[in-house]
Design goal:
The chain is mainly beta. Helices cover 9% and strands 46% of the residues. It has a single domain, classed as Nucleic acid-binding proteins (OB fold (Dihydrolipoamide Acetyltransferase, E2P), Beta Barrel), CATH 2.40.50.140. It comes from hydrothermal vent metagenome.
Length: 95
């Protein structure tokens, strides 16, 4: 196997998937989600919440604010969007 074939085989591995809550779906075919994780403070040992906002591509505009969704990494769709919607895990409660 040549170096080119090895690199191609390594790059076609499983794509990363993340789960988060939709914070905004105002744009056409776009949404923003908040992903929260808990980390342990290196000195004091207390668990701290850290969050990351990610922009994603929603082709059918099916997710709404408050939904819990699963996203998958994809090719860059725009300057900030390189994730796409896989499925809606839980719909937000209707008020």
């Amino acid at each position: 196997m040549s170096n080119v074939e090895t690199a191609a085989a390594a790059s076609t591995g499983a794509k990363r998937t993340l789960q988060g809550v939709v914070t905004s779906s105002a744009g056409d075919k776009s949404a923003t989600i908040m992903i929260e994780r808990r980390i342990k403070h290196p000195l004091y040992g207390k668990f701290i919440k850290r969050s990351t906002k990610i922009h994603l591509h929603d082709e059918t505009n099916e997710c709404n604010k408050g939904d819990t969704i699963l996203i998958e990494e994809c090719r860059p769709m725009s300057k900030t969007k390189s994730w796409k919607l896989v499925k809606i895990v839980e719909k937000a409660p209707e008020l």
